[in-house]
Amino acid sequence: MTLSTRSRAVPLTMALAGTLALSACGAANESGASGGGGGGGADTQQLSGDLVGAGASSQQAAMEAWQAGFQGEYPDVDFSYDPVGSGGGREQFIAGATDFAGSDAALDDEELTAAQERCSGGEVFELPNYVSPIAVIFNLEGVDELDLQPATIAGIFTGAIANWNDPAIAADNPDATLPDQAITPVHRGDDSGTTDNFTDYLFQTAGDVWTAEPDGVWPLPGGEAANGTSGVVGVVESTAGAVTYADASRAGDLGVVSVGVGSEFVAPSAEAAAAVVENSPAVEGRGEYDFAIEVNRQTEGSGEYPIVLVSYHIGCIQYDDQAAADNVKAFMSYVISEDGQQTAADNAGNAPISESLREQAQTAVEAITAG
Amino acid sequence: MSTDTRPAAPAPVQPRGPVRVERRLPRLAPLGLYLAGVALGAGLSALTGSSLSSTVVYGVVLGTLAVFLASRLVEGRRKATDRLVTCLVTTAFGVAMVPLVSLVWTVLDNGLARFDATFFSNSMFRVVGEGGGAYHAILGTLVITALATVISVPIGLMTAIYLVEYATGRLKRAITFFVDVMTGIPSIVAGLFAFALFTLLFGNDVRLGVMGAVALSVLMIPVVVRSCEEVLKLVPNELREASFALGVPKWRTIVKVVLPTAIAGLGTGVTLAVARVVGETAPLLVTVGLITGTNLDPFDGRMATLPVFAYYQLTQPGTDTQAFLDRAWTAALVLIILVMALNVVARLISRFLAPKTGH
Amino acid sequence: MTATKAPSEPRSQQAVRRPGDRIFAGSAKASGVFILLVLAGVAAFLVSEAVPALTAPAEDVPGGEGLGAYVAPLVLGTLLGAVLALLVATPLAVGIALYVTYYAPRRVAATMGYVIDLLAAIPSVVYGFWGLAVLAPALVPFHVWAADTLGFLSFFAGPASTSGRTMFTVGLVLAVMILPIISAISREVFSQAPALHREAALALGATRWEMIRMAVLPYGKSGVIGGAMLGLGRALGETMAVAIVLSGGAGATLNLISSSNPSTIASNIALRFPEATGLGINTLIASGLVLFVITLAVNMLARWIVNRRADFSGAN
């Protein structure tokens, strides 16, 4: 599947490519690929051609799992996903360079208009297919879990609460033995959907403590910054008293905060994250198959965890090209299937989407056509 | 650290002149003095709360001081300065070895876990979690780097030849100056430039291995020019003049006399340039993309490359984090080995081609 | 071709012009001009992408205070890290080059040079992770010590970072990265110092250091500066290692050892670019243009320094 012959080759350099191809006859695990796909027994249609996506790197681990599963069913489809970032993903999709985009944010109105143009004037689908709870995690000797109200979390990250034995923390955790240890809040140094969702949460739930507008770039000056999820988790692991926010699946041995929701404290979990997404209102004024949502940060619902990252798959309802339409349709229906969501969850630690979200997404996937 | 390298190699034998007999320290005295200084330093640091770094710092300073003072008293100022510089230069070398050893150890320690046959024979095609390898990425990096070298070295070398052998006046100054400026292009900008260029030529959805090679060439050419220029400048004029005097045309003089004389330096320069670009991540991601299967044709579609592979294994690991980190470190290890191998090849070539010298 | 008709050396005028000569000289010149074209292409691309950010109203630029306020701390961070790296690396590199060429036993010298070259082979991502995992934690005690004893200097005002991921650490990581570049070129230049000069110096009774000072260093000076400029270019433009190690994003400060550091231009682009949209992209590319201009200025300065004394080169 990979040594395609569609070529823009310049004859002069064919010799070079030729010699290299001679010495390399393909990876050991690729030769038997077409025999391996027994997963989709019911689906007998044979797909081929390219399926190209680009976008959020947050989906990278999940995408690897989806790709593996999808190519098991359709070994002849040439699938690739470039983790160039959400902005780049949306841009490339709108420019027609890719078949679908992965994005940590829904299209804004301007982009939506452009995207509709790209989709032959037709509808655009936006499916919240990757839902990941963001945990507030900390490194504090002898403390594995803490209950914190949103205002307390905001205070910690603004620097107003500077020590772990602060009365505001102690008030919610009467049973914990809080050491006299300075708090080192760690934030993401890169522009990320995680920061955007986290600051949005603080802004909406603790507006009087956290006054900065939500942004993908950490809006406060100074403080400890690190690059990417691995970076912030690494710093927290090696620094006593440090606290950060990161995908819940990466918490490892670190302490995890249960955040105050209504009158209870909810720990991050797949179920709690899926619950809040299901109960969040849709963005208004969107098309029939556009399921962009506004996550309900101020939820008081029992068992709902409001700090979640929702990452979308964005594509067309109507493609110019039959192969593209078939491939996107097949891929999306695999992604939203129970099997697809579980495979991703096993590899990436995200929260599988709920049954009603799946039904909703199914209507969009079934509507995909070529024309 | 620097105690195991001898601080004072035997100085050139001074002829004992008839006028005066020089007073010299016995052969092994500087080493002994140095070690005594180091021991004193270790003692001192033990008194003031010992740590490895303070022991080394005190030791080196006191050892150097001991050698200098003894030499100053016995051998006089000039000799003492010489010994001081010897100590300093050796220390500099020792200091540089510390990060090198630490780095190599870190990479080996983390990278050997997955340094197995699977890593070299398998790709990441349909691999989730553990297992898989970098076969596709290793070959992708080889193809793209080779292509970038094929583009950069002729252009860079010819430019260096032009600057040293032909150019005069304003054009020479302009090229020299702007080549230096070019070294400051951020790698992501080079990537975006190549992306914009190919988008302009072939439309929006183009992703080719050769785009990455072009982006890398933008980064590589100035390094090739700059290092080749420095080396070519050093070829003695006498050689050129001798060749001209024999009636050899200028271009044959350059090809047959100047380049072979400088070949060792040119090899180092090109290797440095390759090393400069082989680990670039950002420009390759925007131009070459990332795939999990094997694609070896740089003129058709996306390819996988080692640095991009390593970077995303490191920064976007899944729940089985250790498997991803192991693959990333092994990829880094392979990258280093690749460049080392290149280095060896360059050295062999230069040894083979270099003219025999008198001694 | 026509421009090279009148070379400064009279000897080439006497040589007969053969077709081979013409082709060779022409293609050499074409390569040089081609490089200028590529650079012009990059510059045109940068400028055209940066214009929207240059003309946008101040409140639309990320940060809300205009391009100047956005770029200024980045410029400071870039220069701070690169200069620190150069200050640390250049003397060390010259020392290494001298050691390998004139001090180390002949038999091991080549191996040692090779070992140092190895540093250049390590990809910058690896430097980043080494800096993060090994160097930064190792330097924490130094940070605390510096804040206590050197706190009166604004560079070490503190409070000391608890993770060690500071501008100081970045400077050292960059120094390690550019060390092989400077030392490889210095080594090459030093080893080419004319044997006659060296032997003459020794024959006159010079010590080894005096021989180096009189015969090797003047000869190799322009090469060392050239190598240092290459290293500086790398340090200014280094992206991934800085992005991984530095705890950046704070405003302008000279403080090298606190956890609030200005970011550098290149690392800021790498960190912000993937998720940037619209004017954000233009702003980042405008900052890339600034880096371009800084490199230009640095090189002008370096040229001026080199040219103050006549070139000491075999080809002159």
Automatic annotation (TrEMBL), chain B:
It comes from the Bacteria. GO terms for molecular function: phosphate transmembrane transporter activity. It is a multi-pass membrane protein. It is found in: Cell membrane. The chain crosses the membrane at residues 28-49, 55-74, 86-108, 134-163, 175-202, 208-225, 257-278, 328-349. It holds the Pfam family BPD_transp_1. One of its GO terms (cellular component) is plasma membrane. Residues 138-346 form the ABC transmembrane type-1 domain. CDD domains: TM_PBP2 (cd06261). Keywords: Cell membrane, Membrane, Phosphate transport, Transmembrane, Transmembrane helix, Transport. GO terms for biological process: phosphate ion transmembrane transport. The keyword Cytoplasm does not apply. The keyword Metal-binding does not apply. Its main location: membrane. Belongs to the binding-protein-dependent transport system permease family. CysTW subfamily. Part of the binding-protein-dependent transport system for phosphate; probably responsible for the translocation of the substrate across the membrane. This is Phosphate transport system permease protein PstA. It comes from Geodermatophilus dictyosporus.
Automatic annotation (TrEMBL), chain C:
GO terms for molecular function: phosphate transmembrane transporter activity. The keyword Glycoprotein does not apply. The keyword Membrane applies. The chain crosses the membrane at residues 32-54, 74-102, 114-136, 167-186, 239-259, 279-302. One of its GO terms (biological process) is phosphate ion transport. CDD domains: TM_PBP2. Part of the binding-protein-dependent transport system for phosphate; probably responsible for the translocation of the substrate across the membrane. PANTHER family: PHOSPHATE TRANSPORT SYSTEM PERMEASE PROTEIN PST, PHOSPHATE TRANSPORT SYSTEM PERMEASE PROTEIN PSTC. This is Phosphate transport system permease protein. It comes from Geodermatophilus dictyosporus.
